[in-house]
Protein 1
Amino acid sequence: QQPVQSPQAVILREGEDAVINCSSSKALYSVHWYRQKHGEAPVFLMILLKGGEQKGHEKISASFNEKKQQSSLYLTASQLSYSGTYFCGTELDLANTGKLIFGQGTTLQVKP
Amino acid sequence: GAVVSQHPSRVICKSGTSVKIECRSLDFQATTMFWYRQFPKQSLMLMATSNEGSKATYEQGVEKDKFLINHASLTLSTLTVTSAHPEDSSFYICSARDWGSSSGNTIYFGEGSWLTVV
């Protein structure tokens, strides 16, 4: 039931782009993306609902393919501050009222 | 500022004792809150769903008698780790959905609580 994220880890140079994928075996109501820095709580990036695609802040955007039960997070012109572990949290049904099942995480390291 | 607040942020307790962690929603009411646990370099694993005015719902493999959850009001849920053991040492974090958020359906997490059992 846990969604699968890929890649597991990625190393970038500042200014490079990255894509992080999240794939579920179950139909999804929504996908939530978070970034977590070491020792800190996850920080909300954006939510993607069924039937919609939402752009986030800065140069981070995402897409949600309901038929394929997949979501992708796009990081463009990466900055040092983008480093951290990215998690997708999947929600199967709105009736769950906020229950998220998280992927295993993707560690992103941005180097100068 | 934070919309979900957790306390304490760090706690050390002796093996065999109990420790309580609070999770508060600020500026919004949350009839449902969620508790997660995260071991180092691992993902967040859902432990239980906290329901205001009723019993919590625990995920498979989570001992309800060990991890007591109380949701006494629309803004407060507490997690009590009873008879703590070193293997309970972890990062515990709560979340709640703010239905009125501008982002629509945003789920916010607390700051998390580091528990160390010695």
Protein 2
Amino acid sequence: EDQVTQSPEALRLQEGESSSLNCSYTVSGLRGLFWYRQDPGKGPEFLFTLYSAGEEKEKERLKATLTKKESFLHITAPKPEDSATYLCAVQERDDKIIFGKGTRLHILP
Amino acid sequence: DAMVIQNPRYQVTQFGKPVTLSCSQTLNHNVMYWYQQKSSQAPKLLFHYYDKDFNNEADTPDNFQSRRPNTSFCFLDIRSPGLGDAAMYLCATSARYSGANVLTFGAGSRLTVL
């Protein structure tokens, strides 16, 4: 059973069309939930860490939120340069960090 | 700039011919990770180290081995690569905090098996 499930698998938006990506998780004892951005052929790049339900973090056009079972990455008025794969990951009690499959986001100009 | 460097960026090998991928870091992080990522799939954790304390995932094949001779370096050895081992191999590092471990990734090593 997957511990981290992301949806949708792929999303195409027009420039300026806001939307949200979902990450649901089933781990207990969450130490942290992470969002990373991955461009083709590169390593993931850190965006946010969320620690507890109700927490929110923002960076430019991105806002991440967390509940007890899922996290959302909201993208407001996206631009073509926001096109990438967005990965969600969770950490339980130890150093082990498990990733979801990601959402491939494509912003059309 | 402090960073995580992986070598080689691209590796082509023949079926069954051993391969070693390297990772070095200047961040002085005590946790190092190796992930395998196939196309459109989640990065899959193979191993991680806390200092020299080695942690092997239960489903990591025996064909994969790792060494960490010091804080700065970590190696991934694939003893007899099969076609199914073709993937991007990602090294990441983290400091262990009381909170959560933010990963810094290298650019990855893409392995092709002929």
